[in-house]
Design goal:
238 residues; alpha+beta; 5 helices
């Protein structure tokens, strides 16, 4: 009877480990891939820390925290390369200055679906309140700080396909990209603004606490030890 309960516990542990290991995935879009176990996006010869990792943090918070050692702010050139991958060749926005670009039927709904499938904004597939319920293409929005230390910039990306209204002028039904006037503050922190952090591919710097994942070999070692304990109890009971 004791062996029966121990075996049941072992099987339960195995199922939990399989479930935990299966919860991670690689999501790919336009040459960029998101590893959901680390929340790191790889593409364009860089690793990007997903933008939901830095909500409530300022640029100065990030620079002063050892948790982000090895990460740095994405430059204007790197941000343009990212946007060009997802929105080019119709992209016309200048990431070095104040600019904006409305997204129209040339882009369609795919741009937002592709971009926000790997990068997470402060609105993530948000349905809000609609008399039609959750529409086919829910809202996604992000605000992110990037640029050089002496010229920090904001970037707004809004994917509102099926939600907007053509009569609203620039802020149309498809969404838009915008770099507003004025420099971003290195002390700005709120629940909507993210910090665009990048590093070279393969860096071994420390990950933020929310990105820590248990490796599969460690899981197997743990389970092997557990099975040895079960077998030892079985031998002792016989």
């Amino acid at each position: 009877m004791k062996y029966h309960y121990l075996l049941k516990a072992a099987l339960t542990t195995l199922l939990l480990l399989i479930s935990f290991n299966g919860s991670s995935a690689i999501i790919e879009s336009r040459g960029y891939s998101l590893d959901t176990s680390t929340n790191i996006i790889t593409g364009g010869e860089l690793e990007w820390l997903n933008w939901d990792e830095t909500f409530e943090l300022s640029v100065n918070n990030v620079y002063s925290s050892p948790q982000f050692n090895g990460w740095r702010l994405a430059t204007s050139h790197e941000m343009y390369g990212l946007l060009n991958t997802f929105f080019g060749p119709n992209l016309s926005i200048d990431t070095n200055s104040t600019d904006r670009q409305r997204l129209n039927s040339v882009f369609g709904s795919e741009f937002g679906e592709d971009f926000f499938s790997v990068f997470t904004g402060y609105l993530d597939n948000f349905c809000g309140t609609s008399r039609n319920g959750c529409l086919t293409n829910p809202q996604n929005r992000t605000k992110v700080i990037y640029g050089e230390d002496e010229a920090l910039k904001h970037l707004f990306i809004r994917d509102e396909y099926d939600w907007g209204n053509e009569s609203r002028g620039f802020y149309n039904r498809y969404g838009y990209l915008e770099i507003p006037r004025g420099a971003a503050s290195a002390d700005l922190s709120n629940g909507q603004t993210s910090i665009a952090l990048v590093r070279g591919i393969g860096s071994t710097s420390t990950q933020p606490p929310t990105s820590v994942a248990v490796s599969e070999p460690n899981q197997l070692i743990f389970f092997s030890v557990f099975l040895l304990v079960v077998l030892r109890f079985k031998s002792a009971s016989e």
